[in-house]
């Protein structure tokens, strides 16, 4: 092969394998841009993933280790209230508000020894017992009125009468209209126990004679 032929072929080879310098730089820039873009995308993915996790944690309250999210804050326990003591006086034992003693003839018997134990005077014993040791009594309740009779020394007779009412405590109030003590009142607590009427003086406010004649257990007298 002549020298001219070798030169021609060499020039053709260089021409086909030649890359302009600008093209080479552009290729390098494209590759560098692709690497930076890949790194940026990866970093953004990590950041967004962390942000979503953090947002989820904040939204649901996290896990407090008690078996589920949002259970770390317990509701405040209700503050117990102390009932205010009532200023209303205590009611009659066994009596409901508005209740009244049943209308009936209620019977009991008192004795001379009971009267003496209470400190009743000799004049009262003479006028009410006479020579007897026992004094049968009947308390008759009829609506707004009452009467009390007994077997006194002169025989059965009415010893007292008057009106019936009830106070704020539900106590039975007997107001006399009799000649000896008109306007005198006796207030007693009451209750029905086994069919009997129990009249009581829990405050100890009654005189000895009143306790003897009123306080005690009264049995309903059969008609």
From TrEMBL:
It comes from the Bacteria. The chain crosses the membrane at residues 38-59. Residues 68-107 are annotated as: Disordered. The keyword Transmembrane applies. Residues 84-102 have a biased composition (Low complexity). Keywords: Membrane, Transmembrane, Transmembrane helix. This is Uncharacterized protein. It comes from Nocardioides pinisoli.
